[in-house]
């Protein structure tokens, strides 16, 4: 940042909180079976970006100063560390040990910072668990060989172990979620899991009707955005909503938190789909140009298709024929597809920032704004 504005670093702002995140997640994933334990914890070893938990923590802190909903008893109940949110890493049967210390560890992370509740901290961990579970399954579906700069779990352990590890993460996430004792939050995050699968299904189908030579229409983009909401923005938006709910925020704040997450999530995936065209495997830490190889038409190609009808036939056969992938890539590069994708992402980022404008000024609010701005600048 040039000028007199101090640099806002959301990760640094939450450093104390984030320090405990991976350790707590690994505790949630303890299994008595050594090879399940290894596969389940595999993606927690490499340093992920932890975008989702970071956003949940920032949202928790930013909304702590917002107006509260009338019925405050609920929120106070959640604030109580008396709720056991611990899960034993030791039991062979993977039962839960009520005396394990996960919550105390989480509490001591920020005992001086009363603005983030233990339940919100747990929510951040749950969001990362659900995300990681979806990556384990995604890498199987996509036949991916690398993730976060290392061999993917499916390559390291095989498809069966990778699928089971993902299921195990979802199971443990569900238990941790139930222990928050907040029915609406349980419903939100359970819906996210269903949404992830729905989004993945929409993507498998690629276009609404599986036609031979589909034509571009306004629905093409609407379908893509709906898929993108389900696949990416649902987790971020509903986690933001849940964070505000756990803090006892009023209805307007809960909606604002949701709107921020939804717009940020959409922008995040648009940038992801753009980077797939513009970055190398080395830069991304995962295969580049993967979408066309997988038969997927994402935003850059959909924008190109609008002015280049010949892309329809390629989309229809999912870039299967010899030379299709290279041809499609060339056409996208000749088009304004990349620029239009970036412009749409910028639009969503602006809407995300606008959504939280009514929040009282705070470092956490600045952090949320910076996360939105960073989404556009990220290189991987
Ligand atoms: C990454 O997309 C994948 C997702 C965001 C969601 C995938 C969802 C499933 C596999 C459904 C099952 C869900 C659960 C919760 C088990 P990508 O392939 O575009 O990104 P990548 O380049 O990082 O692989
Ligand atoms: Mg993938
Ligand atoms: Mg995928």
From TrEMBL:
<keyword id="KW-0479">Metal-binding</keyword>
<dbReference type="GO" id="GO:0043386">
    <property type="term" value="P:mycotoxin biosynthetic process"/>
</dbReference>
<dbReference type="GO" id="GO:0006744">
    <property type="term" value="P:ubiquinone biosynthetic process"/>
</dbReference>
<comment type="similarity">
    <text>Belongs to the FPP/GGPP synthase family.</text>
</comment>
<keyword id="KW-0460">Magnesium</keyword>
<protein>
    <submittedName>
        <fullName>Isoprenoid synthase domain-containing protein</fullName>
    </submittedName>
</protein>
<keyword id="KW-0808">Transferase</keyword>
<dbReference type="GO" id="GO:0046872">
    <property type="term" value="F:metal ion binding"/>
</dbReference>
<dbReference type="GO" id="GO:1990234">
    <property type="term" value="C:transferase complex"/>
</dbReference>
<dbReference type="GO" id="GO:0004659">
    <property type="term" value="F:prenyltransferase activity"/>
</dbReference>
<dbReference type="GO" id="GO:0008299">
    <property type="term" value="P:isoprenoid biosynthetic process"/>
</dbReference>
<dbReference type="GO" id="GO:0046165">
    <property type="term" value="P:alcohol biosynthetic process"/>
</dbReference>
<keyword id="KW-0414">Isoprene biosynthesis</keyword>
């Amino acid at each position: 940042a040039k000028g007199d504005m101090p640099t806002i670093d959301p990760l640094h702002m939450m450093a104390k909180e984030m320090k405990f995140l991976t350790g707590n997640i690994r505790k949630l994933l303890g299994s008595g079976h050594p090879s399940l334990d290894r596969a389940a914890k595999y993606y927690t070893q490499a340093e992920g970006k932890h975008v989702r938990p970071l956003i949940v923590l920032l949202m928790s802190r930013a909304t702590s100063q917002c107006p509260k909903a009338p019925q405050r008893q609920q929120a106070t109940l959640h604030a109580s560390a008396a709720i056991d949110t611990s899960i034993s890493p030791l039991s062979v049967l993977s039962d839960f040990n009520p005396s394990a210390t996960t919550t105390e560890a989480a509490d001591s992370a920020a005992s001086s910072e009363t603005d983030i509740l233990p339940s919100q901290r747990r929510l951040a961990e749950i969001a990362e668990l659900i995300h990681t579970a979806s990556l384990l399954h995604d890498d199987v579906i996509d036949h991916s060989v690398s993730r976060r700069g290392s061999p993917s779990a499916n390559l390291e352990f095989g498809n069966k172990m990778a699928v089971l590890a993902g299921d195990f993460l979802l199971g443990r996430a569900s238990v941790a979620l139930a222990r928050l004792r907040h029915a609406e939050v349980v419903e939100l995050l359970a819906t996210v899991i269903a949404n992830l699968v729905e989004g993945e299904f929409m993507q498998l189908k690629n276009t609404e009707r599986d036609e031979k030579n589909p034509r571009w229409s306004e629905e093409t983009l609407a379908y893509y955005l709906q898929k993108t909401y389900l696949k990416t923005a649902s987790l971020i938006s509903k986690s933001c909503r849940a964070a505000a709910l756990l803090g006892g925020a009023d209805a307007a704040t809960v909606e604002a938190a949701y709107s921020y997450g939804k717009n940020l999530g959409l922008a995040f995936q648009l940038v992801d789909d753009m980077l797939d065209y513009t970055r190398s495997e080395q830069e991304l830490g995962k295969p580049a140009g993967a979408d066309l190889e997988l038969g997927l038409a994402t935003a850059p190609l959909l924008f190109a298709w609008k002015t280049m009808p010949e892309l329809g036939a390629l989309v229809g056969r999912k870039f299967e024929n010899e030379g299709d992938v290279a041809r499609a890539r060339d056409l996208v590069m000749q088009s304004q597809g990349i620029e239009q994708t970036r412009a749409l992402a910028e639009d969503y980022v602006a809407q995300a920032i606008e959504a939280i404008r009514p929040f009282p000024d705070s470092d956490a609010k600045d952090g949320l704004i910076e996360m939105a701005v960073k989404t556009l600048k990220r290189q991987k």
